[in-house]
Design goal:
Layout (H helix, E strand, L loop, with lengths): L1 E7 L6 E5 L15 H7 L18 E6 L9 H7 L9 E3 L11 E6 L14
Parallel strand pairs: 1-5
Antiparallel strand pairs: 1-2, 3-4, 3-5
Length: 124
């Protein structure tokens, strides 16, 4: 079983999720088996204004352990991360960071702040 440890900068209690990546998807937002998918599928919250479609940075997380156990980022994710508040060398978008190792132990920190720019044009 893989383990995802979620820490929150805003002071919420740390959460530990044990899961089998082979059973993904756990719900419908983000890439199947992504940090966002795992978190939401286990009843926790992670902001994701775009629905997990890699179109914003609200699901930005900082990977503190297990970075190498995630599928590598692609250019679109890297471009979006440039706009994230508190960007670090181990920043990822939760909707794109797919756990690839069934025995991985991943530790992420959810930043206190995100950038959520609403252009007001959605659905028009």
């Amino acid at each position: 079983m893989a383990k995802l440890i979620v820490r929150y900068e805003d002071g919420r209690p740390e959460q530990v999720i044990e899961f089998d990546p082979a059973r993904a998807p756990f719900q419908h937002d983000g890439e199947p088996g992504s940090i966002l998918d795992v978190i939401l599928g286990h009843g926790l919250q992670l902001e994701h204004a775009c629905g997990g479609s890699c179109a914003c940075t609200t699901c930005h997380v900082v990977v503190k352990q297990g970075f190498e156990k995630l599928r590598p980022s692609e250019e679109n994710e890297d471009d979006l991360l440039d706009k994230a508040v508190g960007l670090t060398p181990t920043s990822r978008l939760g909707c794109q960071a797919v756990v690839t190792d069934p025995n991985a132990e991943i530790v992420v920190v959810v930043p206190r702040y995100t950038v959520n720019i609403d252009t007001g044009s959605h659905g028009r």
